[in-house]
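quick one, 374 residues, struct below
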Amino acid sequence: MYWKGQHAVNINAMSQRQKGKEMEKENKMGQEKKVQIKVMIKKIKNKVWLFLKKIYTKLPEKMKVHIRKLKPKEKIRGEYKGSDQAEEMPVLKVSPNRGWIRLFWILLAISIILGIYNNFTSVDTVTVEKETVIEEKLKDTNALESYVKDFAGVYHAWENTDREINKREKALEKYLPETLQLMDHGMITTDCPTVAEVESVDIWSVKDLTDTEYEVTYCVKQRISEGEQTAEQSNVYQVTVHRDEKGKMLVVKNPTAYALPGKSSYEPEEKETDGSIDLKTQTQIEDFLNTFFKLYPQASAKELVYYVKDGVLPAIGKNYVYDGLAGKAYYMEGGQPKAEVYVRYLDQDLKITQIMQYKLTLEKGDNWKIVEVE
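---
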């Protein structure tokens, strides 16, 4: 019985201590809330005072008056000491009966109440900026291009015998709908004087017309034979290909001639030595380039480290013999020395002269180095 009673006393004591801690915690939270309210009210008062002060400075002198206010006396060693000097305090000279004054105080009271309400009811929000990267989805056109190449290899090749004509028309059935098969029937006849072989087909472009149709531009190179005469010919054509959801394809538009691109009138700007690099430095750069390009064709990656920074020029392993600079221009650009050179090599395998063009950015440290290639 004693043990049970003692146990009940212990439980009561523990519950009382727990309640005491909870009350202490609530009191602490209440005090913190009061301090927050006082700080907030003080800030609001300061903002209101600054606002009224700004209004006061903009009022005409007729509406301004001054009152005199004694400075408060200080209590020093039990006695009040101070000065009867008065300081002037600016006040507004306005009539309390004016309606706009009442409206002003009403608005001020509403703003203070709303400020206090928002402070207690606002929810802390965190603005998270999300960077959305929109990537263009590239469609796989490899199968489409292969299909068009195979079709062109059949369509643009022919022979003038009945057997080969029938064989060609049979092969085209895999690519063309019946309407185009009928249209193309009789395109090649036995009295056709030419025979054509397809040497190559190059796809130039693939353009989406709809979700299931594509316009393909291609160039076909043919060897045309007529009797004993043979000639090579290149032509550009466009076809439209339908591809369904399962990936099955069909040429729905006959090959239609398209123009070969002409020569552009654009002339690239040729750089010239402009004197921005002095003659002594130009001589140093040229000596460095002569040494480098003489070694470059057979140089290993380890050897190139002494001449090239960060591998901007890879090892090529070619059987070339250096034959000098065919053209050169040295100038400053962006605070760095640049060199545009045409390098002449004798190709020992092809037995021809190769002209290589380089635009180099150079840097002088312990020795000259190539730091960038364009």
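The longest strand covers residues 229-243.
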